[in-house]
């Protein structure tokens, strides 16, 4: 790891596109989220609501039919996509093209055979930005075949593990008690050749420094967030934020860095309001619009450029 930077509100102020008065929902991107199998409709709700609260023009949720009622009540603005139809399409039946600007796979998906089939087919047939979280990461960790497909994915891959998931993904790499988070993020980039977001206090966003995907790895450390975010579902929210920013046209790298900062900033607003103990993931979702608004409207005149850390 040769370069280290910090992700600040000012970084994100520069990255977020401003909206034209004439913009319409088609200009704000289409995000497909696959989430919420087997009793985990909540994970799907959190990811979907986070995507909508972060500005995606259209958010689609592929989830089992049993979850539709929950989804259409908790997130009526989202469009439910039939799980079986997606499975058919992935199996080559039906010929409508992938019509999404980004796909996010994993929150509460479980590791069933059908979840595995879906991930495999997406890795083989989609070529847009692909965010893999939670059970998507667990599937990669269990299945060398899927790891191989991920390593050769034709689009840009964004992996969002916490340290526990990262250790599972890196079982073949020599990690020990002295392995730092920076070294772990670097190992993820070298293994999967995509963008690695290693979550936790001071989330790291890392990728190869050069487009050739060789040599040095660059890592940016997030400066927002607080211990109140150590609560179930907070990661599902992050997946939705990154999907929405990518759908709106940020590059996966910019969406990853902006996404973690905005997610942490929303968590900080939630902690200001409720304190750290009682903060829940839904509170982070509700603060996303205020965090984004504050960052877009912040005054940066006369500020020094202080992103480079070392
Ligand atoms: N309402 C819902 O439907 C929710 C669904 N969720 C989904 O539930 C599924 C499984 O989540 P689990 O929490 O069971 O599995 P995890 O893989 O997140 O956690 C399993 C174990 O991994 C270890 N671990 C977790 N975070 C760690 C960290 N930061 N550092 C080191 N070790 C860590 C701990 O030993 C933990 O008990 C995921 O698909 C997730 O998206 C959760 O997000 C919670 C909310
Ligand atoms: N102490 C902390 N400081 C800052 N951010 C944190 C802290 N603990 C957790 N977070 C953030 O909250 C989210 C938790 O995600 P994750 O561990 O995947 O939870 P879940 O699987 O329940 O959704 C991550 O984005 C992480 O960076």
UniProtKB/TrEMBL annotation:
<dbReference type="GO" id="GO:0110051">
    <property type="term" value="P:metabolite repair"/>
</dbReference>
<keyword id="KW-0456">Lyase</keyword>
<dbReference type="InterPro" id="IPR000631">
    <property type="entry name" value="CARKD"/>
</dbReference>
<dbReference type="GO" id="GO:0046496">
    <property type="term" value="P:nicotinamide nucleotide metabolic process"/>
</dbReference>
<feature type="binding site">
    <location>
        <position position="108"/>
    </location>
    <ligand>
        <name>(6S)-NADPHX</name>
    </ligand>
</feature>
<dbReference type="GO" id="GO:0052856">
    <property type="term" value="F:NAD(P)HX epimerase activity"/>
</dbReference>
<feature type="binding site">
    <location>
        <position position="236"/>
    </location>
    <ligand>
        <name>(6S)-NADPHX</name>
    </ligand>
</feature>
<keyword id="KW-0520">NAD</keyword>
<dbReference type="GO" id="GO:0052855">
    <property type="term" value="F:ADP-dependent NAD(P)H-hydrate dehydratase activity"/>
</dbReference>
<feature type="binding site">
    <location>
        <begin position="199"/>
        <end position="203"/>
    </location>
    <ligand>
        <name>AMP</name>
    </ligand>
</feature>
<keyword id="KW-0521">NADP</keyword>
<feature type="binding site">
    <location>
        <position position="43"/>
    </location>
    <ligand>
        <name>(6S)-NADPHX</name>
    </ligand>
</feature>
<feature type="domain" description="YjeF C-terminal">
    <location>
        <begin position="8"/>
        <end position="295"/>
    </location>
</feature>
<dbReference type="GO" id="GO:0005524">
    <property type="term" value="F:ATP binding"/>
</dbReference>
<protein>
    <recommendedName>
        <fullName>ADP-dependent (S)-NAD(P)H-hydrate dehydratase</fullName>
        <ecNumber>4.2.1.136</ecNumber>
    </recommendedName>
</protein>
<comment type="similarity">
    <text>Belongs to the NnrD/CARKD family.</text>
</comment>
<dbReference type="InterPro" id="IPR029056">
    <property type="entry name" value="Ribokinase-like"/>
</dbReference>
<keyword id="KW-0067">ATP-binding</keyword>
<feature type="binding site">
    <location>
        <position position="162"/>
    </location>
    <ligand>
        <name>(6S)-NADPHX</name>
    </ligand>
</feature>
<comment type="function">
    <text>Catalyzes the dehydration of the S-form of NAD(P)HX at the expense of ADP, which is converted to AMP. Together with NAD(P)HX epimerase, which catalyzes the epimerization of the S- and R-forms, the enzyme allows the repair of both epimers of NAD(P)HX, a damaged form of NAD(P)H that is a result of enzymatic or heat-dependent hydration.</text>
</comment>
<comment type="subunit">
    <text>Homotetramer.</text>
</comment>
<dbReference type="Pfam" id="PF01256">
    <property type="entry name" value="Carb_kinase"/>
</dbReference>
<dbReference type="InterPro" id="IPR017953">
    <property type="entry name" value="Carbohydrate_kinase_pred_CS"/>
</dbReference>
<feature type="binding site">
    <location>
        <position position="235"/>
    </location>
    <ligand>
        <name>AMP</name>
    </ligand>
</feature>
<keyword id="KW-0547">Nucleotide-binding</keyword>
């Amino acid at each position: 790891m040769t370069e280290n930077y910090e992700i600040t509100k000012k970084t994100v102020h520069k990255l977020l596109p401003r909206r034209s008065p004439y913009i319409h929902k088609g200009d704000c991107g289409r995000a497909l989220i696959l989430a919420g199998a087997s009793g985990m409709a909540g994970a799907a709700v959190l990811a979907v609501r986070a995507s909508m609260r972060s500005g995606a023009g259209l958010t689609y949720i592929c989830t089992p039919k049993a979850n539709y009622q929950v989804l259409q009540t908790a997130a009526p603005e989202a469009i439910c996509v039939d799980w079986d139809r997606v499975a058919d399409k992935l199996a080559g039946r039906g010929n409508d093209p992938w019509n999404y600007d980004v796909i996010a796979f994993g929150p509460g998906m479980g590791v069933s055979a059908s979840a595995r089939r879906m991930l495999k087919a997406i890795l083989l047939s989609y070529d847009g930005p692909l965010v893999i979280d939670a059970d998507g990461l667990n599937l990669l960790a269990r299945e060398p075949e899927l790891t191989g497909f991920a390593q050769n994915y034709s689009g840009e891959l964004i992996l969002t593990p916490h340290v526990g998931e990262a250790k599972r993904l890196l079982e073949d790499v020599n990690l020990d008690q002295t392995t730092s988070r920076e070294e772990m993020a670097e190992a993820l980039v070298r293994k999967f050749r995509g963008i690695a977001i290693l979550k936790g206090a001071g989330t790291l966003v890392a990728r190869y420094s050069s487009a050739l995907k060789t040599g040095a790895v660059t890592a940016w450390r997030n400066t927002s967030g607080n211990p109140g975010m150590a609560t179930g579902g907070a990661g599902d929210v992050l997946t939705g934020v990154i999907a929405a920013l990518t759908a709106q046209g940020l590059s996966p790298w910019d969406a990853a860095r902006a996404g973690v900062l905005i997610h942490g900033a929303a968590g900080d607003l939630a902690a200001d309001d409720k304190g750290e103990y009682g903060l829940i993931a839904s509170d982070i979702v509700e603060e996303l619009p205020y965090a984004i608004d504050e960052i877009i409207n912040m005054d940066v005149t006369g500020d020094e450029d202080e992103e480079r850390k070392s």
